[in-house]
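Researcher: I'd like a candidate sequence for this fold, 158 residues long. If you have to choose between options at a position, lean toward the conservative one.
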């Protein structure tokens, strides 16, 4: 492949809109869902995250496997439990009751028209693995690192 053809291919690749690569399934729970149900959903579906939505289905957060792992680690500080020093969200000590208690509320989003170049930059710059695709503030799908890697494989290595 010549350099010009390769450059054009890269250009087209980065212009791919979210709607062409997003997964339309959107694993989600309501913010007031009991944490036990959240854990059951993640393990039952063999997924690594759940979006948290409000009563109007607007995305308000995400719960990842890492959030759950953080919730079971022992909060040690100098050999003592540091309840007074650290803000702890512990599954083991039953501080977490609902999805909202465990979720990460800081979210980045894109729209169906957002191009792959902006999506990749957003995900890399913010060290995120999942990006909700929203239309008029409601989820219509999601983009994951796995989907981007599969697209890269298809476009450049098939």
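Model: Candidate sequence:
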């Amino acid at each position: 492949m010549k350099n010009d053809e390769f450059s054009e291919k890269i250009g087209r690749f980065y212009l791919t809109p979210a709607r062409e690569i997003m997964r339309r399934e959107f694993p989600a729970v309501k913010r007031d869902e009991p944490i036990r149900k959240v854990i059951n959903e993640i393990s039952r579906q063999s997924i690594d995250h759940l979006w948290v939505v409000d009563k109007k289905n607007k995305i308000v957060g995400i719960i990842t496997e890492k959030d759950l792992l953080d919730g079971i680690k022992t909060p040690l500080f100098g050999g003592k439990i540091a309840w007074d020093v650290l803000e702890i969200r512990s599954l083991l000590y039953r501080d977490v009751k609902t999805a909202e208690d465990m979720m990460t509320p800081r979210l980045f989003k894109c729209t169906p028209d957002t191009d792959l170049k902006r999506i990749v930059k957003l995900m890399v710059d913010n060290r995120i693995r999942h990006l909700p695709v929203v239309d008029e503030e409601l989820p219509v799908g999601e983009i994951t690192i796995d989907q981007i890697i599969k697209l890269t494989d298809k476009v450049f290595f098939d």
